[in-house]
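User: I'm writing a tutorial on reading structure tokens. Could you give me a worked example: one chain, its sequence, then its tokens, then a sentence or two explaining what the tokens reveal?
Assistant: Sure. Here is the example chain.
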Amino acid sequence: MVIKLVEACNSIDRIADVLRGKGIIAIPTDTVYGLAVDGLDETAVRKLFRTKKREERPFTLFMVKGDIKEFALPVKKRIIDFFMPGPLTVILKKKRDISLPYITDKIGIRIPQHDFVLKLLAEYQRPLAVTSANKSGEPPLVSPYDIIEHFTEVDVIVDGGMLYAAPSTVLDLTATPPIVMRKGGVSVLAIEKVYGRRVRLKASLKFNVLFVCSGNTCRSPMAEGISKTLISSRFCEIKSAGTIAMSGLQSAHYARQVVKEYGGSIDRHRSNYLDREVVDWADLILVMEYKHYETVLEINPDAVVKTFLLREYRRKTKYTEVPDPVGRDLIAYQNSAAKMYPTLKRLAKDIEARFRGIR
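And here are its predicted structure tokens:
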């Protein structure tokens, strides 16, 4: 049965009856579609394992915010209060006196910022065990019609249209500092701003840095090339782009020469145009001038929390730009690199700290 989202809020009782009968529902969220069952019913949870075709790892529980303390030991409440509801899954310690199917010590909890889901949780009054709508190891399905095709076991599908958003960020709050287990809808820098300190990243992840200038042939390629001599590729992926770049151009001759003076190489660099995809990819965006900052925010206003003038990053100075050396001599390029270098060294230590838990 498929129910349009506009009708779903008036069909909560019917959907709840499916959940009480150990059925599976597919629901839209603020990120991707999820498959959900009654989170307290072991038979229903086991059925979801079979449908998902995955090993018996605990599913995330959706619940109303007031119920978190009933099932888990909430810590670092500032993060929970600020980001939930929203695209964040937090991992907490389960309360010892609570029994939950296939959940032992830790519990993943999520509250999507989605009107239908919030109403369903409020009226059903029991947590839902939820997983993304895909077979294990495959990409999430973005269409209700794809779910119909791939999951004949699903009893009700709430049609919320096409969903292309990134998955939720998964953050382990049982550790100090918290550990980002999966990057997603809430950026690392946004979490750190609320937490007040650095967080850690799971060892298998990488911290993505984007440098931005105008043409992507001088300053941002130099910053990229020099940074790659300072930061291990085990921790970080680095890219650069230009706000008015023509794609495919080689970096400037003097830029290549200066990077070699620092022990790096940008001989293979080709210019890239700044777009939404690379802005969303980045965990940190460092721009050369304020006009570049404005362009990033025009592309995605939500990037404000992770975008800085390069020379202002982790400093108290304001509006300190990196001069554009284009069309000038080697000394101008060397001066631009010299102005960037202290921040690039600081950045390297900063990124490494996120993987080693250094505060």
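What the tokens reveal: The chain has a mean pLDDT of 93. The first strand starts at residue 2 and ends at 4.
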